[in-house]
Amino acid sequence: MSYFSFIILTFNEELHLPRLLESIKDLNAPIFILDSGSTDATLSIAEGYQAKIIYNKFENHPKQWDFALNNFDIQTEWIIGLDADQIVTPELKQKLVLFDENTVSKEVNGIYFNRKNYFRGRWIKHGGYFPKYLLKMFRKGYGHSDLNENMDHRFVIEGKTQIWKKGFLIEENTKENDISFWLAKHNKYSDLVAQEEVERIQKLRSQHTTRKLSGNPDEKIAFLKNIWWKLPLYWRPCIYFIYRFFFQLGFLDGKEGRIFHFLQGFWFRIIVDIKIEELLRSKK
Fold first, then answer.
1. What is the pLDDT of residue 264?
2. Which pLDDT tens digit goes with each residue over 7-62?
3. Is the pLDDT at 255 greater than 80, yes or no?
4. Total-model pTM
5. DSSP state of 283
6. If you ran DSSP here, which 8-state letter would residue 102 be given?
7. In sequence order, what DSSP letters do the residues of 115-177 get, joined into one string?
8. 31 and 52 in contact (C-beta within 8 Å)?
9. Among 37, 63, 110, 166, which residue's beta carbon has the most beta carbons within 10 A?
10. How far is the C-alpha of 64 from the C-alpha of 147, rounded, in Å?
């Protein structure tokens, strides 16, 4: 009997899905896949691993996860939510092999995994990207998708959480090796983030996660985001990039890392700020 099931979101993931499914197949856990209209071999790959598949039109990640959690017939006590471009390392898999009802106390309803992010084949080790704790495992009925974000998806947990510092998730989207793909993808993301921030300015959207610098990883992020939203447009990408690149040693991540930190930490943020200004101007 498995104590957990996997939920995976997909859209044209024939490059990534085999890696992920191979990394978890020996766990013999139920696999549920929510697809948003793949036209490549994604679905046939999933069927080869006996995954249960349903379809939902994609609007944003938080809503997609909310649909998944409310429409799959999960019978296990725990759920693990993964992205298709992630891989469970042997060390993390071993922790899951040994997982049972005695692994965590009854008060713990969520578990953070430690992620290693790769860009163009290079591990992004600095710039605040490692360690990076993502809440990926939670008891059924105690984890919900945070619908107060347009792009960044996170699970909101009722009760206590635990951090697994050892054993990693590897995240590497090889499609992003094509810089045109990366730019197009993040241009779409910038639309979602800009719209979200405008709605926050208009008091149409609020932050539900507790803001606490000394709290769990998501509470710390909520604290920092609350500061970010109050910083002046155009200045904040500069401040963030300088802090990330120099003070958090992002420049040590080699050529690929320096490209990543500039694009993700500065270019993307500038585009968001430009679009926020455009949206606010259009509403006057």
1. 98
2. 999 999 999 999 999 999 999 999 999 999 999 999 999 999 999 999 999 999 99
3. yes
4. 0.95
5. T
6. T
7. EEEEETTEE--STT-SSEEEEEEEETTTEEE-TT-SS---EEESSEEEEEEEEEEEEE-GGGG
8. yes
9. 110
10. 10
Buried/exposed 121-158: b ≥16 CB within 10 Å, e otherwise: ebbbbbbbbeebbbbbbbbeebbbbbebbbbebbbbbe
The 3-state DSSP class for residue 250 equals helix
- Unique residue bearing structure tokens 């921030």: 197
Instruction: Return the H-helix or E-strand segment holding 205.
Output: none
Virtual torsion, Cα 45, 50, 53, 59, nearest 10 deg: -50
Cα 94 to chain centroid, rounded: 22
The reported pLDDT for the residue numbered 284 is: 74
pLDDT over 90 at 99, yes or no: yes
Instruction: Give the CA radius of gyration of the chain.
Output: 19
Place of tokens 């510092």: 165
